[in-house]
Sequence to fold (283 residues):
Amino acid sequence: MTTAPAPAGWRFKQPSVIPGFGLTLGFSLAYLTLIILIPLSGLVWRSAALGWTDFWAIAADRRTINALEISFGTAFIAAGVNVVFGTIVAWVLVRYRFPGRRIVDAMVDLPFALPTAVAGIALTTLYAPNGWIGKLLMPLGIKVAYTPLGIVIALVFIGLPFVVRTVQPIMEELDKEVEEAAATLGANRFQIITRILFPGLAPAIITGFSLAFARGVGEYGSVIFIAGNLPFKSEIAPLLIVIRLEEYNYPAATAIAAIMLALSFLMLLVVNLAQSWSRKRYG
Fold:
């Protein structure tokens, strides 16, 4: 007489034909702890040592608030611009064949390989009042260099590849026959974009936006040259942290860094919630 096997309980490790779960999990946890958790914990601990009164005094300082507004505001605008034009660039590279396409595709990755300081110097040379582009904009009353607009342009430059490389693989997997079927059924181009293409691209677009935004918030090298670094006008939060460190004001530097960390986590939480919503809505 045979007895039925007892139902299996919950297991931390699911059965797998691939060995090495314990080793790889331990390495992953150790790596994350050493590289991410310990530095962030040290930052939070050093900020907590200030006390609530001192921490709030640093956070409520007008210069700190203005630097945070410039950093997060320009990063948000640049990420939004990259979403629009990055999606268009990905569409052109995927759907069209033209001479020099591979060169254009390779140029998209240029901000990844180019040192950020070199990018900042090049952009400043172009958009300064006496630069090639800047001197054409000055008669129109548009000043780019040494203003928040210059910061946005620098962040657009370094953030564009994040959107293109995130959207491009998903766009390559979209079936053209579905678009053709929708067109034969009477759908116009706007309906095809909003009801056929956008649902499949929405998670990738949101991911590209979050990557570009996260890169823009912490960007330093390409911004300090074109920003002008004027307090209350074009000073970014990472630069203010460096200034406080050079003044040996470590509590203020860690407090500003902790505020940036908290705001970044909050923004990424909102982005992840938007991604989850788009997946549930569009599949």
Q: What stands out?
A: The mean pLDDT is 85.
